[in-house]
Design a protein that fits this description.
Two copies of one chain form a homodimer. Chain A is an alpha/beta fold. Chain A is built from seven helices and six strands. A six-stranded parallel beta sheet of chain A has the order 3-2-1-4-5-6. The two termini of chain A are about 10 Å apart. At the A-B interface, α5 and β3 of A face α5 and β3 of B.
Chain lengths: ~170, ~170
């Protein structure tokens, strides 16, 4: 049985990174709670939104992300039970490609290159389960779709939701 | 209708690049005909095979490839008729990722990031047509599989074969 797992906001904490970089740059104290329910860039004053939207183009942004809590041990176990693939819509940010590869080498070395997919549209994925934080990625998937909770998607409906990696473990292990 | 097209030896001429780099390095006159029916590295003396096999790890190798004859105009036309995706098993060579993205920007700018897939196993592709030079990529594909002729695959059987991009145009346009 095959299982696709997204990277950003599912195993790699981009949401928190946006807040941290914003706070450093503007000497602010923006919190997760301030942003909850929004994209981070929408939770800052208009004149600073372009700066937050540009984080993903910054060298090192994707290399320095922290893994989402419990993702490492749970993926390790999942990889023993499923054909586990990482599927990230990375092609929009060419500089992220090598960084994502190196990041996976560091935090998820048990997922080898044959099981890594950097793509655009995820309509092209054929498999059994997809875990993603974006409804538009889940919509066209033929198998079981799990929406992984992120600050920006708490108001999305219509998908089976998982809030944490321990919840994923409960469902899939 | 969706159409996946491989990169190396289908739209990007790795086969010729291996020969050219080998000839430069060893002051030889290896020709396409000398290699035909083989992987290039198998057509050189044993002591030099490791060198040829290492080309793909060399910075710039994938960025400097020449497009395969007629691939540009035919893909341009195909992209107007099909949902055309590039699907390359690039994850084995992390340094190739950015180079492949930049190479596509240069030679196939009409294929945007949403339609680019850098992956490992191609078993995960869901679509209608796959054009690839490797039997093991075509074997697990559910749709129509076209084997694009390359020096290394001329003895492969069992797949619908296309020898040139003009032949592809005849079949698909």
């Amino acid at each position: 049985m095959s299982l696709f797992i997204d990277m950003d906001e599912v195993i790699a904490d981009t949401y928190y990174a946006h807040i941290e970089i914003y706070n450093n740059e503007f000497q602010e104290n923006l919190t997760l709670e301030d942003c909850w329910g929004n994209e981070v860039w929408k939770a800052v004053p208009e004149g600073r939104q372009a700066s937050v939207r540009n984080h993903a183009n910054t060298i090192g942004f994707f290399r320095d992300l922290k893994p989402i809590k419990d993702s490492q041990p749970v993926l390790k176990e999942l990889s023993q039970k499923y054909e586990l693939y990482i599927a990230s819509a990375a092609m929009q940010f060419p500089n992220s490609l090598l960084e994502k590869s190196e990041w996976l080498d560091e935090y998820f070395p048990f997922i080898d290159w044959k099981k890594r997919i950097l793509c655009g549209d995820k309509h092209i994925l054929k498999g059994d389960i997809l875990i993603d934080d974006r409804s538009y990625n889940l919509e066209h998937f033929d198998g079981r779709s799990l929406l992984f909770t992120s600050g920006h998607n708490i108001h999305s409906n219509g998908f089976e939701r998982v809030n944490t990696w321990l919840e994923v473990a409960d469902k899939l292990l």
